[in-house]
Amino acid sequence: MNGSKKQEIITFKVDASLAEALKAVPNRSEFIRSAVMLALENCCPLCQGSGMLTPAQRKHWTSFVANHSVEKCEQCHAVHLVCDAAVDEEAAH
Hints:
This protein starts with 15 loop residues before the first helix and ends with a helix. Helices cover 44% and strands 11% of the residues. The protein has helices at residues 16-23, 28-41, 55-64, 84-92, and strands at 68-72, 79-83. The radius of gyration is 21 Å and the shape is elongated. The chain contains four helices and two strands, in the order αααββα. The protein has one domain. The protein is mainly α. A two-stranded antiparallel ribbon has the order 1-2.
């Protein structure tokens, strides 16, 4: 981390088993920062990791899925969004 930036201390509670496991980590602060950043980078951009959509988000999602679908990749089996307009354009060629 850049030493010139003001840092904020954030604390959180953990159960005894997690506390014990973290004792074995040489640089706990860096480990926890990295884990949190990784989790944030891999967080759903729509629900922001909550697993739930607000009524306003649901309204936007309903509009979005009118021209998009959620599909499973046949090669890697990852679930992903597909723009139906792009699929329709490919079929026209």
